[in-house]
Amino acid sequence: MHETNIGYINQIITTVQGEGNYVGYPVILIRFNGCNLHCSMCDSKYTWTSNNKTNYLSFDEIETRINNHITQYPNIKHIMITGGEPFYQPELLTFIIARYYKLFHIQIETNGYKIHKFNFEVLQNKNIQLNISPKLELNSYSFNTNIDSILTSFYKLYIKLKDYNIPYIFKIVYCKEWEKDILSFYRFININNDMFSNFWMMPLTPDYSDEEFNVKYKQSCFNTITFCKQYGFKYSPRIHVDLFKNDKWENCLRK
Ligand code: SF4
After folding, report:
1. Which residue's CA is the nearest one to ligand 1's atom 3?
2. Does residue 231 register a pLDDT over 60?
3. Domain count, the chain
4. Nearest CA to 76 among 103, 52, 96, 98?
5. For the CA of 113, the nearest atom of ligand 1
6. Whose CA is nearest to atom 5 of ligand 1?
7. How are beta strands 6-7 and 57-58 bridged, if at all?
8. How far is the CA of 71 from the centre of ligand 1 (A)?
9. CATH number at residue 143
């Protein structure tokens, strides 16, 4: 089988969007395997290492599985592509967009790092929104980089999004220790003072195995709300964390 006609998929399920400006909308969720980063606080580490020669699907099989969900839930009008990092498999991403953009609103969840190298004509003039969650911690990057390089990459992305007129939001995970970096990022990117409405803050999820998870998560939510009140950012809930924690199969209510 030709490499470009296979994809590494972790999940295809139906659920609701848990974050951002489309929170609560029912979606067909397509989770890609593989990511260009390895963040310590990643809540989908199970997508990192599962690309191997035995777990791929052909594009045709992926399409069939998506279509099965469409048949079962014909009233769902949104597709959410997540990961891992969807732009890590550009051919598969391009294939799914081409197949479904005329019938669905498509949201692509991405860490946004260096995705400006993707052919943005694929995204242009389609019913697509990018949900960008930048990682500002240097230890998320397993290769040599620095904050200037990361900020420059996001600035190039911002310019490209504007040039191609592609809708987007930034969904930023908040915790107190990152506050300075978040504000630096916001001020750097928001150079034209035109991005305020695109920024959403989300609470950091504690380690799921932590016995005090509930207490720590509640505190994290309160801290994020305090930050939002101070700077006027919008707060985004994380429905999947509230309801399902890390049970990715419960996330679809077993159907
Ligand atoms: S970018 Fe997202 S999926 Fe990739 S390692 Fe970081 S948190 Fe996990």
Report:
1. 84
2. yes
3. 1
4. 103
5. 1
6. 38
7. antiparallel
8. 31
9. 3.20.20.70
- Print the domain residue range for 105: 3-252
Cα torsion 116, 190, 203, 86 to 10°: value is -10
Backbone dihedral angles phi then psi of residue 235, each to the nearest 5 degrees: -95, 135
Strands (E), the chain: 6-7, 9-16, 26-32, 57-58, 78-82, 105-110, 128-132, 168-174, 199-203, 234-235
What one-character-per-residue DSSP string does 48-92 give?
TS--STTS-EEHHHHHHHHHHHHHH-TT--EEEEESS-GGGSHHH
What pLDDT, on the 0 to 100 scale, is given for residue 113? 92
Whether the pLDDT of residue 42 is over 70: the answer is yes
- The finding on whether 42 has its CB within 6 A of some atom of ligand 1 is yes
pLDDT in tens, 129-177: 999 999 988 888 878 888 888 989 999 999 999 999 999 999 999 999 9
114 CA from centroid of ligand 1 (Å): 14
> In a mutational test of the pocket of ligand 1, which residue from 11, 38, 41, 171 has the highest number of ligand atoms less than 8 Å from its CB?
38
Question: 229 alpha carbon to ligand 1 midpoint, in Å?
Answer: 27
- The pLDDT value recorded for residue 146 is 87
* Cα of 204 from ligand 1 centre, angstroms: 13
85 lines ligand 1 (CB under 6 A): yes
